[in-house]
Each structure stands twice: as C-alpha cells, then as structure tokens.
Amino acid sequence: MNTMTLWHITGWEFAALALAALLVGFSKTAVSGANTVSLAIFAAVLPARASTGVLLPLLIAGDVLAVLTYRRHAHWPTLWRLFPAVAAGVVLGTLFLMWADDGAVRTSIGAILLLMAGVTVWRRRTAETAAGPEAVVGRAGRVKARSYGVLGGFTTMVANAGGPVMSMYLLSAGFRKLGFLGTSAFFFLIVNLSKVPFSVGLGLIDGHSLLLDAALAACVVPGALLGKWAVHRINQRLFEQLVIAATVVGGLQLLLR
User: Fold this and answer.
1) How far is Cα 96 from Cα 100, in angstroms, rounded to an integer?
2) Distance between CA 132 and CA 130 in Å, rounded?
3) pTM to 2 decimals?
4) Which pLDDT score, from 0 to 100, does residue 236 have?
C-alpha cells in the first residue's frame, strides 16, 4: 500500500476528506449510494487502491450508527438469502484486486453501477405494482438475490462501491424507506467487517491508514445525525429518485475519470 499519513495531506485535502467522511454518515442514515461521492473524493486525494483501505473503517463506523438508528426495520429473510452470494463476490473481488490496476477497477465498477441503475428503472416502469420484500422468496427472487449478491460482494470488495448495487436490489424488491435503510444497515455492517481481514492481507489497511481514519471518524457522526433528520422529510418517491441518481452519478464518475 502507498501509505499516506496525516502529515502528508494539505489542509484543503484534509477538508475534502472530512466532507467525504460526513457524506459517509449521511449516506448510511439517509440516501444510500451517496457515498459514491465519498469514494470519488478519497480516490482523488489518496492513491486509488490505498483509498479503499482508508475508507473501509469509516464505512464501518457509519454502519454502526445506521444499525443503532434503524435496527428494528431490518428484513432478515432477505439478508440470509444474500449473504452466501455476497461471500462468493467478496472472494472474487479479492482475486480481482490481486492483479487489476486502478483503471480496470474503475471501469468495471462504473459499468456495473450504470447497468444496475438501468435495469432497476426499466423494471420499475414496466411493473404494474411494486413488489414487497416477501417477493424475494420465489425462484425468480432467489436468482435475483444471488445475482445482486455476487455483484454486491464483488463491488464492495474492490472499490467499497457495493452500496449502489444493493440499493438497486432493495428498490427492485419493493422495500419502503425504513425497511430499505434497516436492511442495508445490517447488511453492510456484516459485509464490511468481513472485508477487514482481506484488506489487511492485501496491505490496504495499516497503522498509517488507521491514524488518518481516527482523525476523520468524528466527521461521520454529524453526517449520520443529519441523515437521520433528513430521511423523515423525504417522501418515498423522492427517496428512490435520489438513490438511483446517486448510483448513476457514481457510475459515470468512475467511467469518466
């Protein structure tokens, strides 16, 4: 890992990272997928591969706050159905990171995010009625869960960009706002914790990265509080539009960088 300590970062660069950390907290308790902006900022300020190791502990901090906020709204049948496929995706992502350069990572993730956004918009326009979380129990639901799970595990491992993929899955399954946030909170806390040994083994997390995390972690908390305040003032339709828009922006910025 190209380590980057706090003392090697200019004031403006640290301010940009602090803003990105605040967005991490906001995305965890309000608009999932908004942390693609954080991903872009971290990758711009820090070496691209190293930035994923710095960002991961901040995401975990945001996940903990989201679980504390929305723990009563999680849909556990969906989570249990996703985890085996996600585990396979994390392993594939780890193997991919062993040989892929930054350009390959950005292009792959950007294309996946745009594809998922397009599929979700198409499905929602052609469906006569919105499906509910119970729709994941059928054969088609299981196939969809496995497909999104592998993609989610892969993207979260290689670029911490699994949020938009899983957002598209939860929206396509018909989750309402609080169920969406509660289910995704537990999902990403468990998945991100499982990624830590892989990231350490790849050299993406070390003492230098954790020192920078310690300086930025305080910015995650006000972002999460802001998200908790904002989510109750956003109606369901706007919520879904913001999630899809954040996914598209994240995919485009990865492809165009």
Assistant:
1) 6
2) 7
3) 0.78
4) 66
